[in-house]
Amino acid sequence: MPGARRKVKLTKTLISECAPLRTEYAVWDTACEGLHVRIFPTGAKSFAVFYRDERGRQRRRSLGRTNDVPVDEARKRAQAAIADVRRGFDPFDELDKRKSIPTLEEVWSNYLSDHALPKKATSSVCGDKQLWKTRVGPELGKLFVDEITPSVVRKWHGAAFAKPYAANRALSLLSKLLSFSSEHVTKNACEGIDRYPEQPRETILTAEEVKALFEALKEDHDVGGATLVQLLAHTGARRGEALRAKWTEFDLELGEWSVPSDHIKGGRRHGITIRRPLSFVATKLIRAWRDCGQHESELVFPQTGNSSARRYDIKAVWERARLKAGLPKLRLHDLRHNFASMALMNGATLYEIGAVLGHRDAQTTARYAHLSKSQRSRVADLVGKSISDAIDGED
Fold it and tell me: Reading across the β-sheet that carries 256-259, which strands appear in turn?
């Protein structure tokens, strides 16, 4: 028995007479196997029980301070613990498991360092951080993961009904975090929680709206920013692909833009590159921008006054253009949706559109396949005509 100095029947008086030494020592009880008192150099004293688990490993567990636990109670606890161990159940293992359960805040930290930062796109990580900061962390971060039950999640998600899109994204993040804690919870508390209905946003611009937007862009004083926005509309590219673009990616003779994987959302992780064709108009647009003197920088869209640093955003020019065009609710990413929808309307297949946009599967591209009112009417007219022809043919 480790650290044994002597064996006696422990009493309150005897324990009080045990003086501290320079090093910790133990006094063992003769009335209960494994029970002993630990006397620390600081003068603190506590009961503990020594035993061997089912694998024969030596274990020692605290039963409480001698000031708080009477000797008789300590014996009962030690005897009960040893009896449990002999039946194959170690109560201290259960206690260890409880103590090892992390808070959601601790899980978030591990998720961020082990998964999000090394594996997700920068924009996705920023989105996760914003959701954690504004929606998940403030209300749930301090809870231990086993305290996050379906009823807790349902109440938390239900209180966010005013912003259904953000609430659903936050629920997805919470579900991901809980999946990182699967060893501590028997079931993900987000399972079975109904998401708020999300109505698809109509993103097809009319010819008049396209004209108004492009006129506003051509009149804007920020020529570089306006050119970038027009390039997005003509190509369906993501903002980040254009902001990071270098002149070496463009072959204006062939009319092609080769986007490297480092510039594509998820590109490096999935090995995606894009050989994006440029229309005659898009090629003319980029050539005109280059001829303004931008060829002196390796970046297509450098910062004003610093040709060696790229632009980081175009919020100002986009805000001016959409307001001037009378499209205050139009999002910059809607230009990508609009590109895909217009291509589909003009006969391009989902596979062809997906290749230009950089999608890995057609299902992603299908999200943009909105039909305009005129197209929906045309579908109904075609079916109606077929039925009428069939009826007329029977007469």
Answer: 250-251, 256-259, 274-277
